[in-house]
Design goal:
heterodimer; A: mainly beta; Rossmann fold; Neuraminidase; 2 domains; four-stranded antiparallel sheet; 31 strands; B: 4 helices; 4 strands; 31% helix; 14% strand; globular
Chain lengths: 457, 156
């Protein structure tokens, strides 16, 4: 097990400095100011809109960053991979690059020749155990700088710089926030299917910096991020009592959410991070409860002889969507945060499960189960506009990236014989329009992905 | 912990010839009482009583054809009063993980309530749900699913 904890101070030590084009040309020293990463660059008019990028990905050239190696080259590779994976950019093969002028103003005519619409350049300087990374994004046609920023951080943290640059490119060129400086927590599965070992694991959204959070002594399921991205809520079978726990993912310290009667499952944090909504099973019925994280008191929101599971708040915290069999089979219901005003929203063919509200508020993603196939889909919060994004033998558990543009989920392949040969369970991601489905790489079988918000600076 | 007492269940022995693989512990190969498992053990329960009941798709009520197994379990638990059990509720793979955890718990509770109604003290019966995560049979077909929708009584 690798235990490579980045110290919290490493996050705080990330500095950001704006670089003007003038500063580059004249090489005048730039004033250093500490900026938090939340204060992202002011949105300017995007170069291309997302709808167009889906059919016609934006051609972009990402040059190896000059200066200290191997970081300069590696940062360019991570940015290239991120943008390519999004499906919205077409990074140009570096072998087509004509220019080999590591510093200074790009010769835009040469980038136009190979069809680049945007260009990324940079420079890395090593200062002891720290790196200073300059990053510049250029609009090739008019030959102007769109953004120039310098980041300083400890060397082992270089991947975050690459992800932050990727998010800046995504945001400046597409006009929407990115999702690259994020992590995914999920359930790693190993061993035969009837005796599986299920461990929580966490990784960067591109699969790097993978590490386990639990040792597999007790199975752990359904991890979900706190809005601060440092804590998770999940269900653990610790001491054979399946209950909801909380964990600090840096220290891996686990705490029981509370000593509530019955099995507790399906935890999810409220958008303000002050409470956990979950399902508790008492007397054969599963009902929805909210637990205040300060008082650890529970408040019951649903009542009655049904199985109510998988609750999820709307991003404004005003509403809750959940899964219930109260009408005879599994369907999706929305209610107010106090439990009132309940109504069913799913009316298509089959059963509906695992609803999750988009961080943008505009969609609810779900699993739809019919006899032959499972599917991942989205609908508006009033139940209209249902669209199926992907279908297969078994898939479930959609989880939104923080910009609401991409979903992670897990997909199972069917066992081919009575011994379960051929069965597998892997993570995948897909654009909310249903295009660009891709495998999310994990070292072993995997399930239950949850996507973190953008990591705070 | 086990009192050596012959179970007065000889009339029921013939009913116990189930071809199920137990979730844990070795399956008894013979039914004969002389060479059979020690009374009051999991092996005894599996061989002579039946350790599990099955459920219909997305249901948790005790089916009429499954009730006799729980009747025998109740009688067996009355006989072996020192035995405590956990009832493990399970679901087939054709559902979502979270819902199936709840469904498995409801199945375990349903079996527990049945045993309590037949006179077994509730304090002797714990329940736990594994949802669809611990299938007894690994195939992906109707036969396998029917065997995986189950509540299994396990001696503590």
């Amino acid at each position: 097990m690798t235990k490579q904890l980045l110290s919290p101070t490493a996050f705080e030590a990330l500095e950001r400095v704006s670089l003007s084009r003038r500063a580059l040309l004249a090489a005048v020293p730039v004033a250093t100011t500490m900026l938090t990463l939340n204060a992202r660059a002011q949105a300017e008019r995007p170069v291309i809109d997302i709808t167009r990028a889906r059919t016609d990905p934006l051609p972009i050239a990402i040059r190896d960053f000059a200066g200290a190696q191997p970081w300069g080259e590696q940062i360019a590779q991570v940015i290239t991979a991120n943008l390519a994976r999004s499906g919205l950019f077409r990074p140009i093969d570096r072998r087509a690059f004509l220019q080999d002028n590591p510093d200074g103003t790009p010769r835009f005519a040469e980038w136009r020749v190979i069809g680049a619409q945007a260009l990324v350049t940079g420079r890395v300087d090593q200062q002891g155990d720290r790196l200073r990374v300059e990053f510049r994004l250029w609009d090739v046609l008019p030959g102007t700088q769109i953004q120039g920023t310098a980041y300083t951080t400890q060397a082992p943290n270089w991947r975050r710089i690459a992800h932050i640059c990727s998010d800046a490119i995504y945001e400046r060129l597409l006009g929407e926030k990115g999702y690259f400086d994020t992590r995914i927590v999920y359930v790693s599965e190993s061993g035969p299917r009837d005796r599986r070992i299920r461990r929580l694991a966490i990784m960067d959204q591109d699969g790097e910096n993978h590490r386990f959070l639990t040792d597999g002594t007790w199975a752990a399921l359904t991890p979900r991020f706190h809005p601060n991205t440092r804590e998770i809520a999940y269900m653990s079978y610790a001491r054979n009592e399946p209950r909801v726990f909380l964990m600090d993912v840096d220290t891996r310290r686990e705490t029981l959410l509370g000593n509530f009667p019955g099995m507790t499952l399906s935890p999810r944090f409220s958008p303000d991070g002050n409470s956990v909504i979950l399902s508790a099973i008492r007397g054969g019925d599963a009902n929805i409860y909210v637990v205040d994280l300060r008082t650890r008191r529970e408040r019951q929101l649903t009542f009655g002889p049904s199985l109510d599971v998988s609750p999820c708040f709307s991003p404004d915290g005003q509403k809750i969507v959940f899964n219930s069999d109260r009408g005879g089979d599994q369907q999706l219901y929305v209610m107010d945060a106090d439990g009132g005003n309940l109504r069913r929203i799913s009316f298509g063919q089959g059963r509906y499960a695992t609803p999750v509200w988009s961080p943008r508020g505009d969609l609810i993603a779900f699993t739809r189960l019919t006899r032959g196939t499972f599917a991942i889909g989205v609908m508006r919060p009033d139940g209209s506009g249902e669209r199926i994004l992907s279908e297969g033998w078994q898939m479930e558990g959609p989880a939104f990236a923080p910009n609401g543009r991409v979903l992670a989920f897990w997909r199972e392949t069917r066992a081919q014989d009575a011994r379960g040969a051929g069965y597998s369970s892997r993570l995948a991601s897909i654009d909310i329009t249903g295009f660009n489905e891709r495998a999310l790489p994990t070292p072993a079988d995997a399930s239950d992905p949850a996507w973190s918000p953008l990591i705070p600076g | 912990m086990t009192r050596m007492r012959l179970a007065p269940l000889s009339g029921l022995v013939l009913l116990a010839a189930c071809a199920q693989a137990p979730d844990q512990g070795g399956a008894a190969t013979g039914i004969g009482q002389a060479t059979g498992p020690r009374p009051g053990t999991q092996e005894d329960l599996v061989a002579n009583v039946g350790d599990r009941v099955f459920f219909d798709f997305d249901r948790s009520n005790i089916r009429p054809d499954q009730a006799p197994t729980l009747d025998r379990q109740a009688a067996w638990l009355q006989t072996h009063r020192q035995v405590r059990v956990v009832i493990e509720g399970h679901a087939d793979e054709r559902g979502t993980r979270e819902y199936n955890l709840a469904l498995g718990q409801r199945r375990a509770d349903s079996a527990r309530n049945y045993l309590i109604a037949r006179g077994v003290e509730g304090s002797r019966i714990r329940t736990i749900s594994y949802g669809k995560d611990r299938p007894a049979v690994l195939g992906s077909n109707e036969e396998a699913w029917a065997q995986n929708r189950r509540a299994v009584t396990v001696v503590q």
